[in-house]
Amino acid sequence: MSAPDPSVLDQAAGWLDEGRTVALATVIETWGSAPQPVGSQLAIDSQGNFEGSVSGGCVEGAVVTVALDVMESGAPRVLEFGVADETAWEVGLACGGRIRIYVEPLGGEA
Amino acid sequence: MDRATLDSLVEARKNRRAVALVTDLATGRQELVAREAVNGVAYADRLAEAFRFDRSGVLATDEGELFLNIFNPPLTLVVVGAVHIAQTLIPMARLAGYDVTVIDPRGAFASQERFPDVTLHADWPDEVLPGLALDARSAMVALTHDPKIDDPALTAAVNSDCFYIGALGSRKTHARRVERLKDSGLSEERIGRIHAPIGLSIGARGPAEIAVSIMAELTQTLRQGDG
């Protein structure tokens, strides 16, 4: 299924209702053998709790760190991970794929 | 994503409405576009295709990159015939993300005991199908081998927007079916939408393997179209 997992958004909405600060990460592009299809989402709160998946575990840690920055700054960011990346040794994709992820703050005023 | 957009998105999914969340990756500006409103946007063709193939992705425009995130409602599979193969096919279809409805007027077949956790209609297809609204996210398989049950179901399906229609039966059985459907006034083009014999040709033996071949053909049609 390339359809996003609806439970992630439901969870995120629930967190906002509890007054938590939340960011949302979404896979926007993949090349090669990426573990999660485009549209996959990960919701993160300011305590570092997360729900969903953007890579099957390979880069979630790094995404959570960036998400905390995004919550603070309020500015969305585009991240790229892959074997060609210089950070590959730390958080690269073991499968050899490459992914782009959009990280945005969630739940602000329009 | 602001709260109002998130709420609209959650609401659309609850009501099984297809929507796309379009994000300008440079500015973070977002817009929800309903599937029925695609003609109102500049990149209508690309968005329509993204809905059709359930394919989210980045679109490069003169103004910068847009991310089209497609939120389609769940797929539905209508199984006509509460037969043995259906019992194997249904769990596979559910794993692949389909909501399943079973229709069989024969009460002994369409029992909740044989088909737990699915929507079950122990009625004739022509009584049930008008209420089901077969759309571009629906598939139908006719599995009874009984023309009295299969033919009206297939007629309704070929006249609908459903993306896949399959019918169980040999080439010979299908040739006779085609004759009957032609006699009933259906065009060859409509009849040609029926995949028969059903399933990809993988040498399947027994209900489980036939179910795999049906799911494979369904998936192929969903993801790559009929061409």
Automatic annotation (TrEMBL), chain A:
- Which positions fall inside the XdhC- CoxI domain? 15-82
InterPro entries in the cross-refs? MoCofactor_Util/Proc, XdhC_CoxI
Q: Out of the domains of life, which is the source? A: Bacteria
PANTHER family from the xrefs?
Answer: ALDEHYDE OXIDOREDUCTASE MOLYBDENUM COFACTOR ASSEMBLY PROTEIN, MOLYBDENUM COFACTOR INSERTION CHAPERONE PAOD
- Tell me what this protein is called: XdhC family protein
Q: What is the lineage of its organism?
A: Bacteria, Pseudomonadati, Pseudomonadota, Alphaproteobacteria, Hyphomicrobiales
TrEMBL record, chain B:
Q: Which InterPro entries does the protein's record reference?
A: MoCofactor_Util/Proc (IPR052698), XdhC_Rossmann_dom (IPR027051)
Q: Which Pfam families match?
A: XdhC_C (PF13478)
**Gene3D superfamilies, per database record:** NAD(P)-binding Rossmann-like Domain
Q: Which residues form the XdhC Rossmann domain?
A: 77-218
Q: Which PANTHER family match?
A: ALDEHYDE OXIDOREDUCTASE MOLYBDENUM COFACTOR ASSEMBLY PROTEIN, MOLYBDENUM COFACTOR INSERTION CHAPERONE PAOD
Name of protein: XdhC family protein
Q: Which organism is it from?
A: Kaustia mangrovi
